[in-house]
Amino acid sequence: MRLLGGFIGQWSSVAKEALDRTMIVAKFLCLLHVTNNYLCSSTLVYGPSMLPTLNLTGDVVLAEHVSTRLGMVGLGDVVLVRSPENPRKTVTKRIVGMEGDTVTFLVDPMNSDRCRTMVVPKGHVWIQGDNIYASKDSRHFGPVPYGLIQGKVCYRVWPLDGFGSLG
Amino acid sequence: MRNLPPFLMIVKEGLDKTLTVAKFLCALHVTNTYLCTSVMAQGPSMLPTFNLTGDLLLAERISARFGRVGPGDIVIIRSPENPRKIVAKRVKGVEGDSVTYVVEPKSSDRCETVVVPKGHVWIEGDNIYDSNDSRKFGAVPYGLIQGKVFWRIWPREGFGSVR
Fold it and tell me: Where's the active site on this chain (chain B) (predicted)?
């Protein structure tokens, strides 16, 4: 009986230490999650639609989430937007028109010079990639509701030669 | 510990209590954001399902995250016209569905049929005579759905699951 008691005692102290360490890791992950959601997060963005601002093969950028919540996102900002065509995908584009603005855009610059003009409805924004020749943006799926904007890209972290704030 | 002046003891106790309250609020916030939240819905657009003067509802956030929202569900959704407003409407069609709706039921019987584009849902209020919904602002991107309403808490006569 004493042997069994000693055995359990030894295991319970190991279990307690493991639980303490796990709690520290869990608290750190919670803090990381809160920071990512409400303050600032890092994302890998890739694709040709934002050349030459962002590289084709991938850049790690810092996006802050405070401006979107306060409604302080405006014209010319590069933003992370939940895609209106696939809610699980987040895309990076530039805001070219806010609600009430009149946007003039080239419908299909690879094939023709045809322009169209549209007024951005209330509560929406018009997003376009910097590389209009290879970008799927508001010219295809129309203005995007402001509520889909996830964050504003503010800084590039990788690659190192591109390190710095993104205009 | 006994040597601390009584003032510091009070400060320490105050800090402990504040920390407990802060932890409780954090847990509440996490539950509200990821599991289940309560929402007050008012207005005429969901009569007779919800009352005009306001119902307190419970909405769960898990179905929306896993893409399991379908036609017939009542959802809370961020309004595409005003991103700070959350409205409660019923989903009438998901991407790919053909939705037939009465454009302006107060004035005429004219119907229109539209196919819901990819990644969007078609929402309508139960009271089509007085509802600002997809018939006015078009199909809404799925990403704006905040949760699915499943229970009514207040008023007490309406307490129970919401279909």
Answer: 45, 89
Alpha carbon of A122: minimum distance to chain B alpha carbons (Å): 5
Kind of pairing between the strands at A40-45 and A59-64: antiparallel
Q: Which residues contact B117 (CB under 8 A, 6 or more apart)?
A: A85, A141, B95, B139
Predicted confidence band of residue A112 (pLDDT cuts 50, 70, 90):
confident
Predicted complex ipTM exceeds 0.95: no
Q: Where are the alpha helices (DSSP H) in chain A?
A: 2-38, 66-70, 138-141
Query: Containing domain of residue B84, as a range?
Result: 37-161
Torsion sign (Cα): B58, B60, B63, B64: positive
What's the gap in Å between the CA of B144 and the closest CA on chain A? 6
Residue B11 lies in a domain: no
Going from N- to C-terminal start, the domains of chain A cover 41-165
Strand-pair category, A144-145 with A59-64: unpaired
Q: Catalytic residue at A49?
A: yes
For residue A131, what pLDDT band results from cuts at 50, 70 and 90? very high
Query: Which CATH code fits A41-165?
Result: 2.10.109.10
Inter-chain residue contact B144 with A145, CB threshold 8 Å: yes
Peptide bond into B6 cis (omega under 30): no
Among candidate residues B12, B23, B38, B45, the one labeled active-site is B45
pTM: 0.82
Q: Which residue has the tokens 């009430």?
A: A100
What is the rounded CA–CA span in Å between residue A88 and residue B141?
11
